[in-house]
Amino acid sequence: MSFDIVVVDDHRVVRDGIRAILTRDPEFRVVGEADDGAGALHVCQETNPALVLMDISLPGVNGIEATVQLVRHFPNTKVVILSMYDDERSVMGAIRAGARGFVLKQASFGEVLNALRVVARGGTYLSSSISGRLVERLQRGSLDAAEKGPLDSLSPRELQVLRLVAEGKSSKEVATILKLEHSTIRSYRKTMMKKLGVSNLAGLIQIAVAAGVTMAPGTTKPSG
User: Fold this and answer.
1) Pairing of strands 28-34, 51-55
2) For domain 156-211, which architecture applies?
3) Are 67 and 95 in contact (CB under 8 A)?
């Protein structure tokens, strides 16, 4: 038995690499690709796949937003998130959105295949480093507290913009990545500063780094 799968990532080289691995495994059949969340929804409507391997950071409709819509409109399609971020906010956001798996991009292709097999057969899968931390927090009774933080007032789109800004991207660069207008990104930045009670980008970035929304060390204030 083989499982139809759609691969979603905004980098062509990543999609090509994943496709190359999956085509060598008789358990999977790649039936479509997309480079953003909106495209993923369109491809799934045409192919009705068993699985979607979804990058979390996508331009336009991001992976979390796309997962919410996929689960709503295609209940028989299971989503496995592929992400370079392992912070609890991203993981819990993916789980709440309805994803059945969460795998790090640093993982081996063997682990990615294992995650897809587990989810395809009705199970759930979290990379071991993630599941270990979540279990530890549950045992300490601190997971609920960790879910509440200074960024809870931000929308998913604002969090996506904040992550990119905190990684050193300028407003123009963020606009290009997310396929939005430059003025829209500047508006998001002003709204986030107001919500978080800071008056400049340095304060915004400081809160972002403290909350763990970026893994980039030594982030400096972006321009533009």
Assistant:
1) unpaired
2) Orthogonal Bundle (1.10)
3) no
